[in-house]
Amino acid sequence: MKEKSQDIREYPIQIQNKFSIGNQFMPEEIWSKIRVLTSIQPKLVLAGSLSLHALHLVSLDFNNRTPDFDFALREPLTEDEFLIMKSLFNLKTFESKYEEDKTIHESDILKRDLIVFADEKLNYIDVFNKEYQNDMNKLYPVNFGNHITPHIVYCQHPSITISHKMKYAFLENYHKKDKHRDDCIDLLCKNYNRIINQLNILNTTRSKFRNHINNNVKPTLIDNLKHELDKLF
Q: Which residues, listed in sequence order, are joined to residue 70 by a DSSP beta bridge?
């Protein structure tokens, strides 16, 4: 029998509810956009400040701050997946912030380390197209749905987000330098102990999920069918 999947989305609703993290409140427009994007493209992993908020590590003040939509990827996007995202949301791509893309072919855009989308209101969606987050054991599942119809969105490990903030805080002439500096002070100085305690809770929940599926979850009918097919071929 093959190793059991570590993707909580492939398990029954009861398991998804039990071992996922309840989403912290965020404005409807932001919450629904994350849901729709990750429904259309499940390779997306929530990153940036919104991931820290979703994991209850920070509480963003949405009245005074409009965070970008930052995503990592579990694996590279195909050209078809890229075009579906772009067309369904009527998005444009940008070579950099505020500079609309002049590249015509999708294959060239997909070679970039950072793919920048923007909608008609210039709300940016940054997709980090390197260092793929393909180890499910290092991601945290957050339920953006409810107990009846869960919608799991994976968040990247906060150490990655914080390391990026450290980089931008020291980046010369970067227009958001001060914001990232202040975030680092809050994360690593003022609230460090509280964040570590919350991270311990997240890690414990993730470990319980792994132990549960490895010890208690019986193979499904599909698992058994795959096993029989593997023996035939």
A: 126
β-strand pairing of 21-22 with 99-100: unpaired
Element (H, E) at 18: helix 13-19
Concatenated DSSP letters for 37-90?
HHHH-TTEEE-HHHHHHHTTS----TTT----EEEEESSPPPHHHHHHHHHHTT
Q: Provide CB contacts within 8 A for 60, sequence distance 6+.
A: 26, 49, 50, 53, 67
Block mean pLDDT (10 aa), the chain, length 233 = 82 95 91 94 96 95 90 95 89 73 76 88 87 90 93 95 92 86 92 94 94 72 53 51
Q: What is the pTM for the complete model shown?
A: 0.85
Q: Are 120 and 142 in contact (CB under 8 A)?
A: no
- Of 79, 23, 18, nearest to 50 by C-alpha is 23
Secondary structure of residue 142 in the 3-state scheme: strand
